[in-house]
Amino acid sequence: MHPLNAPIRSLLVLGPARSGKSRYAQRLAEGSGLNPILIATAEAKDNEMAARIARHAAERAPSWSVIEEPLALADALNREARNDRILVVDCITLWLSNVLLRGQDLSPASQHLAQSIAGLAGPAIFVSNEVGSGIVPDNPLARAFRDAQGLLNQALGRACDAVVLVSAGIPIQIKPAPEPGFRF
Questions:
Q1: Known catalytic residues?
Q2: Whether 74 contacts 110, CB under 8 Å
Q3: Could you tell me the residue range of the domain that residue 33 belongs to?
Q4: How far is it, in rounded angstroms, from Cα 99 to Cα 82?
Q5: pTM
Q6: Backbone angles phi, psi at 28, to 5 degrees
């Protein structure tokens, strides 16, 4: 387990939609003193998504470099990670959706991504939605996605040095943290 308050190389930032997780990841990256690189997984397939992408771009300082990578995320991470950079992947949920909608097998792709984190040559922040806290979806595709997202978040949570949950714009550290000491 990673020691509390020790420098980290990888961080998973979880939260519901519009919780402030992207803004939190951006603030951490900008405060790191490293060159911030956004690895964007979104694809502007409609006007609403194009507007979201434009809003996110407007919120970033000009010092950011942007790499668009909707599918080959582990390859992009390995190619772009360096000690003088901090990578921010925004977002894992859209990447997983891209993989699913192209008919690719989610489990190997998710495992490959999680396994790539340990070998990165520089720090990275991963932004992902926490999608399993609501009702059970009413169709098989949505249930498969919710389940795959939950399993991927677990794998990334194990692979990353630290995990933060953002709720109502407030970051809550989950990992590293002491294991609850319940006794029965």
A1: 56
A2: no
A3: 10-167
A4: 26
A5: 0.92
A6: -60, -45
